[in-house]
């Protein structure tokens, strides 16, 4: 990140590459434009255990929609990942947030203790799906979950089943959703009795 690269992001950037246990793709804070690739990993080979996974496309000039398959891969099995980060904030993206954008494949689930996903400062529309985190399973020792939907054009009610099970007394939950067009009631289960720290910005 933090260069002056411009033009589109190659769609076959990481195809067929072996992925290390500490993986990071950071093209943030450049002048990249065009649409996001349908799949940046292709047939890349993932290990069964990851220390961290980071895919950061933030602070560019990407347009179009967020591809549902942007971080999918041909890997099978279960991937254990301590830290999971996915950022597309500060672009010019539109359309809806895909229901299962974190689905690596039909048989893969990320077991994570730190999850961060940022969608803020775009032109995203539609509702937030209750399936958004269905492929990210919280380990019993979940430390943090941060999601930022702020400054978009999202509508509808906030999903009652947005949070999967797995939160513990050590959990820190931060949800930012200001400057949208959400309506309806806040779901009861956003406020966990077992959660150590809860920050809601609506």
Oligomer: single chain
Roughly what is the average pLDDT, rounded to an integer? 78
Give the strand tally. Answer: 16
The class by helix and strand makeup works out as mainly beta
Name the helix and strand elements from N-terminus to C-terminus, one letter apiece: EEEEEEEEEEEEEEEE
Question: What is the helix fraction of residues, given as a range?
Answer: under 10%
Shape: globular
Biggest sheet layout: 9 strands, parallel
What is the terminal-to-terminal distance?
30 Å
In DSSP terms (H or I, runs of 4 or more residues), the helix count works out at 0
**Strand-residue proportion:** 35-45%
Rg on CA atoms, Å? 16 Å
Low-confidence stretches: none
Walk me through what this model shows:
The protein has 202 residues and is mainly beta. Helix content is 0%, strand content 36%. It has no helices and 16 strands. It has strands at residues 6-7, 22-26, 31-35, 49-56, 61-64, 79-87, 92-95, 110-112, 114-118, 123-126, 136-138, 144-148, 153-156, 172-176, 181-182, 197-201. Strands 2, 4, 6, 8, 9, 11, 12, 14 and 16 form a nine-stranded parallel beta sheet that branches. The protein has a seven-stranded parallel beta sheet with strand order 1-3-5-7-10-13-15, with no helix packed on it. The chain is globular, with a radius of gyration of 16 Å.
């Amino acid at each position: 990140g933090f260069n002056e690269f411009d033009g589109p992001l190659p769609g076959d950037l990481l195809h067929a590459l072996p992925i290390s246990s500490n993986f990071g793709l950071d093209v943030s804070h450049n002048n990249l434009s065009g649409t996001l690739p349908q799949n940046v990993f292709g047939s890349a080979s993932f290990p069964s255990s990851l220390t961290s996974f980071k895919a950061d496309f933030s602070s560019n000039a990407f347009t179009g929609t967020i591809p549902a398959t942007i971080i999918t891969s041909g890997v099978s099995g279960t991937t254990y990942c301590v830290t999971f980060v996915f950022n597309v904030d500060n672009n010019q993206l539109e359309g809806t947030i895909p229901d299962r954008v974190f689905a690596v494949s039909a048989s893969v689930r990320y077991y994570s203790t730190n999850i961060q996903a940022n969608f803020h400062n775009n032109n995203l529309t539609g509702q937030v799906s209750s399936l958004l985190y269905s492929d990210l399973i919280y380990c019993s020792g979940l430390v943090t979950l941060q999601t930022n939907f702020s400054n978009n054009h999202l509508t509808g009610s906030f999903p009652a089943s947005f949070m999967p099970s797995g939160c513990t007394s050590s959990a820190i939950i931060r949800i930012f959703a200001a400057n949208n067009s959400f309506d309806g009631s806040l779901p009861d289960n956003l406020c966990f009795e077992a959660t150590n720290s809860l920050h809601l910005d609506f």
